[in-house]
Design brief:
By secondary structure, this protein is an alpha+beta fold. It has three helices and three strands.
Length: 80
């Protein structure tokens, strides 16, 4: 992930578009036929939180981080 701040100057979480989250999780690169449907499933089952702004789905960057952390093994965080 990038080194961009996770919050804005108003201390609000950085909100990502669905396309950005699909790219971050590489859902479009791992052979999924419908990456957007996979993300919709993750939202619907409560695995990734989201907000709707003007009818658009936005996902807080912190939700993506939590998802990755929950689905990573401890070995993934060890440095060589």
């Amino acid at each position: 992930m990038s080194a961009e701040p996770e919050t804005t100057s108003m201390d609000m979480p950085k909100l990502l578009t669905q396309e950005e989250v699909i790219g971050i999780l590489r859902l479009d690169e791992i052979g999924l036929k419908y990456p957007k449907e996979t993300l919709r499933y993750l939202r619907r089952t409560g695995q990734i939180g989201y907000v709707k702004v003007a009818g658009k789905v936005l996902i807080p960057q912190s939700e993506v981080r939590k998802y990755v952390k929950r689905h990573s093994s401890p070995a993934d965080y060890c440095s060589d």
